[in-house]
Amino acid sequence: MDAILRIILWVDKMSVELKNVTKKYGKIYAIRNVNLKINKGEFFVLLGPSGSGKTTILRSIAGLEKIDEGRIFIDNEDVTPLPPGKRNVAMVFQNFALYPNKTVYENLSLPIENLNKSEREERITEVAKRLGISDLLNRYPSELSGGQQQRVALARALVKRAKIFLMDEPLSNLDAPQRISARKLIKDIQIEERITTIYVTHDQTEAMAIADRIGIIFNGSLIQVGTPEEIYENPANIDVAMFFGNPPMSIIDGKVVDEKGKIGVRAEDVSIGEGKLKGVVREVEFWGDRYLVYISINGQEIRAFSKIKYKIGEEVNFSFSKYKLLGE
């Protein structure tokens, strides 16, 4: 049987639901009244700045944190009182958490020590081939590159045949080229096997590239849930608008377009060289196939994409093809 098909067959997709989940450290709320439903086979990304509560949610689902209030369900079963080993989840940590004194093979064996030797060998061989690490099985973690360690950590999750993957910033210790290839590998595996995956990151570009849906978290509260496109086009509030996207929305007074309150404008929705609005170029950044131009208008700043490299101090006309009303 084909190795990929064998892995697909054992996956029984599971949903995850959090109901009014709260976790405190002393008097400080790490997460507060979180309500979230993650669908079977979904790639769901928890996105927010450092310290927002993303990892606390992940660790609570895994059973590594005991919540103070609320309930956690996996496939409609209340797992709140269950220890980590009874929840059938696999977690990939930021630092990979490989045992330095054990070979790759031995690291992969740890989650499946209950199997007999032939079953362990079959499962490890299968997953190692899938992830391209067959030639690394006799090496130690110190002999591996960051990208190779990341593959081993992912393989360890796969051999366990868990029904839910929990990934806590798994790419943050990799350099830029490794992050791109590792991100594609993770997404490819998730698509092929449709394992319910909950992935934590602070990187908006990463989130938009891999997520089916995203949950935006600020200060322990879940602010908005939607597809990348939904959040990009319709941020729930000013905080989300200023956080989500690369670059994020420019936020200015609506009075420049005869609107009340604040408006948000994406850089691609600003046209320089036409329109009645006037501003002064304050900064220009080279972005490969285009420039990101910072325009000052009445003490406020607008970002715009342009194929032309404008000069700093140059006065320009510009207009908006669309904008988002964000309230006061």
From TrEMBL:
SMART domains in the record: AAA
Record's keyword terms, sorted: ATP-binding, Cell membrane, Membrane, Nucleotide-binding, Translocase, Transport
PROSITE patterns, alphabetized: ABC_TRANSPORTER_1, ABC_TRANSPORTER_2
Classification via SUPFAM superfamilies: MOP-like, P-loop containing nucleoside triphosphate hydrolases
Superkingdom of origin: Archaea
Record keyword tRNA processing present: no
Pfam families from the UniProt entry: ABC_tran, TOBE_2
Record's protein name: ABC transporter ATP-binding protein
Originating species: Sulfurisphaera javensis
